[in-house]
Structures are given as C-alpha cells and as structure tokens.
Amino acid sequence: MNIYSFSLGLLGTNCYVIEQNQKALVVDPGGEAEKLIQFFSENDIQPLAILLTHAHFDHIGGVEELRSHYSIDVYMNESESEWLTNPQLNGSQRFQLGEIKAEREADHFLTEGTTTIDQFEFKVLHTPGHSPGSISFLFESDHVLIAGDTLFQMGIGRTDLPFGEHQTLIQSIQVKIFSLLDETIVLPGHGPKTTVGEEKEQNPFF
Question: Are strands 151-152 and 155-156 parallel, antiparallel or unpaired?
C-alpha cells in the first residue's frame, strides 16, 4: 500500500491518496481537484471512492469535481450529512469564503467498525470533538491512522468552532487513538505526520 499526500485548498489541507495495485481511495480532497486528476492520469491510477474525516469546508472543496469526473461515491459519518451541501454548517459561509459545497449529500454513511471498499479494508473510529461527525481511518496492517483534524503533531483539533467540544475531543484521542500501538503513524488533516507514541509522550495537551 502506498500513501501520497497533497496539500490542497485555501488552508493547505492534507489530502491523502491510498493506492494499491493502481487503485486508490481519496481522503479529504480539500480543493484543487485538478491536481489530483492530473496525478491519477499521469500514474494510471483509478480512484474508487472519496472518504471524508469530517465535512468542514477545507476538507471538501474538491469533492464534487472528483465525484462527477470519476463517477465515484463519497463516504462520511451520517451526523454531518447536511454539512456537505450547506455552507453555513460546513463553515465556508462563516469565514466569508463563498459557498464551498457539494451538489448532493454523501452516497454512503460510515459507522464505527471494519469497512471494505474493493480491495481496501480499514477500521472506522468515531473520534468526535473537533466536529460531531469526525472519524479516523485505521489501516491496521500498515499501522497507519488518518486522523483528520482530531490529532496533530504536538497539537489537537480546534474546538472553538460551532459544534466543537473540547472534552469530547480529549476523550476521543485518549480512548480511541492512544490505545493504538505506539508505532502507529498518525496522518493529520494539517501539518506533518507523527506517531501515537510521540504524542502520548510529548503532546502538551496530555
């Protein structure tokens, strides 16, 4: 399994492409979909689905273009089902960035547990706090967790936005993420990667 990272959109959101045997999952395409389309074309990779850790505007900007270009489905947590199409809920209206949205809601809603999409198998962890529908994707055999805006290198996600809850976020990290193996690589929604072990020992919020 290969993982490619792209810094996309207005806030440089980390978009991850999980590739195996020339097929791929796209996690959090925050914008600039044309860069991803060019990458897939140049490398003869077929995207299979779009996964969203949550539906804030800076994580969804490229969703509609990718979905329509490749006729692929979008997967996310149901508690933010309306955010994908509502600029007021996803925050783009709040930050006066224009209307960043998709044309329709997600095609599938993910619940906690093991999910299989084609040849990819991963675990969905519900990690709310930054937003109510925040989820993380654990590729257990590769010791990789895509954590969205839940946990960063020496930081945690914002909880001062609407529907954010600080204590809920802390609990999500302590219960769902810090229980993973120390060597698990954490790929955050912004900034550099880290590991579970490093954050347990050095993150100033814990």
Answer: antiparallel
